[in-house]
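User: Please predict the structure of the protein below. I'd like the answer in structure-token form so I can feed it into my own downstream comparison script.

Assistant: Understood. Taking the following sequence of 266 residues as input:
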Amino acid sequence: MVRNLFLMNLFRRALLYWLPASVLVAGCFFAMREGQRASADSAVEKETESKSPADAKEALQQFNELIGEWRGVGMPRRGSRAGAWFETAEWVWDFEAKTPAIKYEVKKSQLLDTARMTWDVKTKKYHLKAKLPDETTREYTGAWDKDGKLVLESAANDEGTTHRITLTPLNEKRTLVLHEQRSGQGLYRRVAEVGYTRSGTSLAVEGAGERECIVTGGKGTIAVSFKGKTYYVCCTGCKQAFDEDPEGTIAAYEQKVADRKAKKGQ
């Protein structure tokens, strides 16, 4: 009996000693695993963040032909001047935020006032945040389709209405922007389409010695200079980016030209 009590007390002491130690070891192990996982996630996030501006800029370069000023005619009904209006628009690069964007600014429009186009590196989709004439905002998401049209769609609002914008670049002088909406799961119906014609003279034909924007690779229309040399940018946004870091911009452009030549030589 005495011996049994002795063994039971010994077992209890061992258990009291071993249990906290085992819990401590297990806790340290799981903490280490979580730390490693957090470090890995942080590394991936940092890598994604470092690539995001460059990837966004590359994706948005598809809009280089739109950069500049345009004259537009909005038509609620195809082929009819009833209810039509005139407007002007300008597409410019925007480098003020951490991730580059393209701004779409419109005057005298009945459909929207301003919009900002960005690229989501994670979803591989374009995101357009538009400010409407009534001061409200609407957000669209989409991508280029197989026909070369950019199709952007909003989420349904409280009334179940979905809005869609389809941008169709026809050539360097003509672009169409179609606005549509639908209720529930019904078919889209036309709200209005704006046919844009580029303001001013036609730009040079690509490959015929045109000037290239040193920031985005678009068509250079504005001259800038640094250390006695003249370069060209396509819009006021790119001019601002060049003025803020001319040496870095020139170095990046020269590297891009060198890579282009090396690729052609392969």
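That's the full token string. The mean pLDDT is 82.
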